[in-house]
Amino acid sequence: MTADLFDGLETPAPAREPLAPGAMLLRGFARPDEVELLAAIAAITAQAPFRRMITPGGHQMSVAMTNCGPFGWVTDRSGYRYDAVDPESGQPWPAMPPLLRELAENAAREAGFPGFASDACLINRYEPGAKMSLHQDRDERDVGAPIVSVSLGLPATFLFGGLKRTDKAQRHRLAHGDVVVWGGPARLAFHGVAPLADGEHALLGSRRINLTFRRAR
Ligand code: MD6
Ligand code: FE
Questions:
Q1: C-alpha span between 95 and 68 (Å, rounded)
Q2: What is the CATH number of the domain that holds 30?
Q3: Tally of domains in the chain
Q4: Whose Cα sits closest to atom 1 in ligand 1?
Q5: What confidence score (pLDDT) does residue 92 get?
């Protein structure tokens, strides 16, 4: 009886979980687009392959990265920055497919940030053991715009702290298709990803891919 309540109607609204003022988890928001998203990511990484970048401190990151859109986030010995050119190829980053840009805009609107016009999409690939230490996203010129983060593949534990590095971090499990939107009073909160546990995902194998959409310029 309740199973066909939604038959012939629009998809029900996604489950929203507020993480903090300005931060919202939209469970499964990207799932309807999973096949097209993975095809778009494959086309981007054929042009701009994943690579493990070097931090300004000289450490190689455990997460492999690439980008699409007008600007890409890069790090090397000289620092973190946004660059219109892929330093590996000397070419502009691959264009941001409309599907990705629209997914980010729709998720931001759902979380209370209408009009999000992303000009940078960082694509992160985690293999088992890869992690991201607590950090703030502060390389963007305008921190008035939110960040939209899409999780695909293996689940991860997202660490979400406060505005000080020493604030105790909450832990949230991010699964395939989950989207986190992050802005306003939460925009500069410290966050990270715990070491990825081993596992096998039906579409992605033993990997997690995260897309983070930003307004860089
Ligand atoms: C990740 N995410 O989920 C890493 N940054 O793989 C981030 O660093 C991040 O998820 C800003 C806002 C949301 C995020
Ligand atoms: Fe981040």
A1: 6
A2: 2.60.120.590
A3: 1
A4: 210
A5: 98
